[in-house]
Design brief:
Length: 211
Amino acid sequence: MASDVILRDLRSKDREDLIRGYLDLYREREAGEPIGILLFTTPPLWEEELKWFESVQRSVASGAKIVVVAEVDGHAVGLCEATRHGPSSPDHESAHVADLGILVQRAHRGHGVGEALLREVLARCRGKFEIVILSVFADNARAKHLYRKLGFRPYGSLPDGLKRGKSYIDSDLMYLDLRSATPEGATRGKSSRKLNRGTPSASAPSPIHGG
Ligand SMILES: CC(C)(COP(=O)(O)OP(=O)(O)OC[C@H]1O[C@@H](n2cnc3c(N)ncnc32)[C@H](O)[C@@H]1OP(=O)(O)O)[C@@H](O)C(=O)NCCC(=O)NCCS
């Protein structure tokens, strides 16, 4: 757990790590753990995830999506993305808004990786998007703490907006207005790991399904 964390662009080589990390969530859900991320009722097939990864790469290449990957010991262990809300075209009246998604693999949670990823993505959003929005399980205390810490504010909640098995969970909605928010880093949090910003690669792709 003493390894450094590198923050960098998505690369094709991340495909396996990120798909595996995502599919692990289904095992966590099966084990009855409170996964704070939206999943399909039935786990998707590997082939479907490959297509999804390719679509993420295309979105990054087209500029509709910003992706930052956290790498530890040569493996992608987390990803944060901001995706243009609504149609992916910048020529649209919602093009200034981005949807946020974040996922850190279980073994790496609670060590500051999520905060570092979020700060980096928000920094990259500045000048490209004006408002960042997200929805979060009402009972996802860790994620909500992180979002509030970085300046996100609640703007509503959809009662029973999420349904997992037979249980309903409220879907809390949060936003960050980048035009008025102080730059991320104003309240830099502690981290038990050394965090490095990786050398930006020639733009690449990434995943994460909602949040
Ligand atoms: C949510 C997630 C991205 C956070 O990443 P992380 O690397 O675990 O988070 P960090 O270690 O950077 O920060 C966690 C913060 O939450 C705090 N925290 C942890 N458990 C908490 C709890 N039960 N209640 C409130 N705060 C909590 C920590 O103290 C820390 O804050 P601090 O640095 O101010 O002390 C990660 O846990 C994850 O991927 N979870 C599963 C997927 C998910 O829920 N995604 C979000 C979808 S909206």
